[in-house]
Amino acid sequence: MPIPTPHITAKKGDFAKTVLMPGDPLRAKFIAENYLDNAVLVNNVRGVNGYTGYYKGKRVSVMASGMGQPSIGIYSYELFNFYDVDSIIRIGSCGSLDKDLHIRDIVIAQGACTNGNYINQYSLPGTFAPIADFNLIKKAAEECEKKKVNYKIGNILSSDMFYDESNSTLQWAKMGVLGVEMEAAALYCNALRAGKKALCICTVSDSLVNQEKETTALERQNSFTNMIEIALEVII
Ligand code: HPA
After folding, report:
1. Is 150 left (phi over 0), alpha (psi -120 to 50) or beta?
2. Mutational pocket test of ligand 1: of 106, 181, 227, the residue with most ligand atoms within 8 Å of the beta carbon
3. What CA–CA distance (Å, rounded) separates 216 from 224?
4. What is the pLDDT of residue 77?
5. Residue 124 above 90 pLDDT?
6. For 28-47, what is each residue's pLDDT tens digit?
7. Which of 86, 168, 231, 232 has its CA 20 to 30 A from that of 145?
8. Is 87 in contact with 196 (CB distance < 8 Å)?
9. What local confidence, expressed as pLDDT, does residue 160 receive?
C-alpha cells in the first residue's frame, strides 16, 4: 500500500516508532501541546490529529483512534503496516466490571476479550486470545507502582456496543474481566498479526458494578494526565 493511505496523509518517516493513541482527537492535541517538545501536526484527515514530537528527548507520536474496533482497526493497521510504527499504546477509559476498581483507578489490559466481529477475519480454527506485549505491561505496572495509583492487570472486554440492549456485559465479570471499553481487541490483533507491539491502559470512568458518584471535569483531567505520564514513561 503506498502512502499516504486513505486515512493518513503523513509522509514516510513522519511518525515515530511509538505512537500514543487516545480515542479523542482533542486529547491527542492536549498531549502534543502539554507534553511534547517541538510537536508538529503530521495528520489531520477527518480531524484525526496526529503529532510527532519529543518527550524527554525521545521521538514519539500521538494520534487519535476514534471510537470502536473498526476505527482503531484502520488507524493502527495503517501505522503498523505502512508507516513502520513498532508500538502503539492506547490510552482510554473503561467502565469497571470489578468491585475493587473504582473511578480514576487504572486497568492495564493484559488481554482483550471481544463480542465484536473484527477478530473473525483471521478464520482461526478456535478462539484467539488477543494479548498485549509483555514488556509494555511490565513497564506500565512499574510506572503505576512509582505513581502509587490503584491499578489492576488482567482481561478487559472490547465491546461493539456502548448502548447494549442485551445487558450481556455483566456476564464477562463472572470470568474475571476487569472492565469494558471498545477498542483494545482490534489493536492487539493488528499488532500480533504484524509482529508488532501494543498495550491498552485505561482509567476507570464509570462502574457497572458499584454505585459511584460522578467525577468532576477536574478529577477526570487529573486521572487522564496520570495515565498519559505512565504511558510516556513506558515509551522512554
Ligand atoms: N462501555 C463501553 N466503553 C466504555 C464504557 C462502557 O461502559 N465506559 C468507558 N468506556
Report:
1. beta
2. 181
3. 12
4. 98
5. yes
6. 999 999 999 999 999 999 99
7. 86
8. yes
9. 97
**Residue 218: per-residue pLDDT:** 79
Q: Ligand 1: which of 27, 114, 180 to mutate, judged by most atoms within 8 Å of the beta carbon?
A: 180
Count CA atoms within 13 Å of residue 57 on its CB side.
Answer: 0
The alpha-carbon radius of gyration of the chain (Å, integer) is 17
- Residue ID of nearest Cα to ligand 1 atom 2: 181
Q: Is 51 exposed, middle or buried (0-12, 13-18, 19+ CB in 10 A)?
A: buried
| Contact assessment for residue 99 and residue 197, using Cβ atoms and an 8 Å cutoff | no
User: ω before 4 within 30° of 0 (cis)?
Assistant: yes
Residue with grid cell 470502536, as numbered in its chain: 68
pLDDT tens, position by position, 161-213 = 999 999 899 999 999 999 999 999 999 999 999 999 999 999 999 999 999 87
Q: Which amino acid is at 102?
A: H
CA of 214 to the centre of ligand 1 (A): 14
Q: What is the pTM of this model?
A: 0.96
pLDDT confidence band for 84 (50 / 70 / 90): very high
What are the DSSP calls for 171-235, one per residue?
A: HHHTTT--EEESSHHHHHHHHHHHT-EEEEEEEEEEESSS--PPPPHHHHHHHHHHHHHHHHHHH
Contact 28, 50 (CB under 8 A): yes
